[in-house]
Amino acid sequence: MTIIERIKGLILNRELVSYVVVGVLTTLVNFVFFTWVNEYVKGLGFGVSFASKAAYVTAFVAAVIFAYWANKLVVFKNFKMSPGYLFKEFAGFMSARIISGVITFILMAVCVDIIKMNEYLAWLLTSAFNLIFNYVASKFYIFKKS
Fold first, then answer.
1. Sign of CA dihedral 25, 97, 49, 122
2. Is the confidence at residue 3, as pLDDT, over 80?
3. Do the beta carbons of residue 22 and residue 135 sit within 8 Å?
4. At what angle do helices 119-137 and 83-109 cross, to 10 degrees?
5. Secondary structure of 36-61 in the HEC alphabet?
6. What 3-state class would DSSP assign to 35?
């Protein structure tokens, strides 16, 4: 197999393409919640530092719930629905997302508080990191084929 054929296979891979689409939709869910909460909390009189952190946590939870079901059903086509299996799988998914969430939360705080980066640019950068980290975790640990 040539390098060109391998690249085409990677680019045209249904799983990878659907992961990117779900990732974009998850990012949209995250952004909508982040924006709404960030602006709402700032409107209550809190500063950007507190507002961005409150918005981040809220958006993270909404995005993780959406991402679990979309990845399970659309990307990795895993239709096992027994309660024990779902619990174990969701626990693994949440664990990976908590790890990536803590890392990106710290990166967000560093970007906003230390570097003094605009909170939306910081959100964009941390979201890109999150997308890559979570694909690797989902593909090779959470939804891996038996």
1. negative
2. no
3. no
4. 140
5. HHHHHHHHCCCCHHHHHHHHHHHHHH
6. helix
| Tokens encoding 132 | 């890559």
Whether residue 76 contacts residue 138, with contact meaning beta carbons closer than 8 Å, is answered with yes
* Integer-rounded Cα radius of gyration of the chain: 17
**Which region, left, alpha or beta, applies to residue 116 given φ > 0 means left and ψ of -120 to 50 means alpha?**
left
Distance of CA 65 to the CA centre of its chain: 10
Q: What is the pTM of this model?
A: 0.69
Evaluate whether 138 touches 71 at the Cβ level (below 8 Å): yes
Q: How far apart are CA 67 and CA 100, in angstroms?
A: 13
CA–CA distance, 140 with 63 (Å, rounded to integer): 20
Could you give the maximum distance between any two Cα atoms of the chain, in Å?
A: 60
Tens-place pLDDT, residues 52-67: 999 989 998 899 899 9
